[in-house]
Amino acid sequence: MPNEKIEKYEMITCVVNAGFSDVVMDAAKAAGAGGGTVIHGRGTANKEAEQYFKITVQPEKDIVMLIVPARIKDRVLHAIYKNAGLATDGQGIAFSVPVNQAVGLYDPDKAENKEEEHAENA
């Protein structure tokens, strides 16, 4: 379908203290994101960074990755930062990168439209 508009996506990655991935996911879902993937890891920082940001780096981390439509990226990032950013107990950082191609993603808006079209054609 050459005339069909191709949806653009972004991958949001958020690194938070261990145990705060649910806070990130709840905030992201409330802002319109679907599901995500959580990876457990270890963080490191030098003492200067801890003093500058006035935080203590906990070594155990959760890395939350979400693929979202580009049109909601800013809303999702803002929600994550508000609920799990550096000023919270989660002490999270988040960033996004563009996704060149994606397959197998579920977009509830598109699914709802297709269900409506199917019902009309039935």
Keywords:
122 residues, alpha+beta, Alpha-Beta Plaits, four-stranded antiparallel sheet, 4 helices, 35% helix, elongated
Description:
By secondary structure, the chain is α+β, with helices and mostly antiparallel strands. Helix 1 (21-30) packs antiparallel against helix 3 (73-84). The longest helix has 14 residues, at 108-121. It has a four-stranded antiparallel beta sheet, with helices on one face. It has four helices and four strands. The model has no long low-confidence stretch (mean pLDDT 85). It has helices at 21-30, 47-53, 73-84, 108-121, and strands at residues 9-17, 37-42, 60-69, 93-99.
Give a short summary of the structure:
The chain is of the alpha+beta class. It has helices at residues 21-30, 47-53, 73-84, 108-121; strands spanning 9-17, 37-42, 60-69, 93-99. It has one domain (9-121): Alpha-Beta Plaits.
What's the SSE blueprint?
Elements: E1 9-17, H1 21-30, E2 37-42, H2 47-53, E3 60-69, H3 73-84, E4 93-99, H4 108-121
Antiparallel strand pairs: 1-3, 1-4, 2-3
Helix pairs in contact: 1-3
What percent of the residues sit in helical stretches (DSSP H or I)? 25-40%
Shape: elongated
Largest sheet: 4 strands, antiparallel
* Structure summary, number of beta strands: 4
Q: How many separate structural domains?
A: 1
How are helices and strands ordered from N to C? Answer: EHEHEHEH
SS element count, helices: 4
- Straight-line N-to-C gap: 23 Å
| Mean pLDDT across residues | 85
Percent of sequence in beta strands: 25-35%
The gyration radius over C-alpha positions equals: 18 Å
Low-confidence stretches: none
Q: In order across it, which strands form the biggest sheet?
A: 2-3-1-4
Kindly provide the name of the CATH class. Answer: Alpha Beta
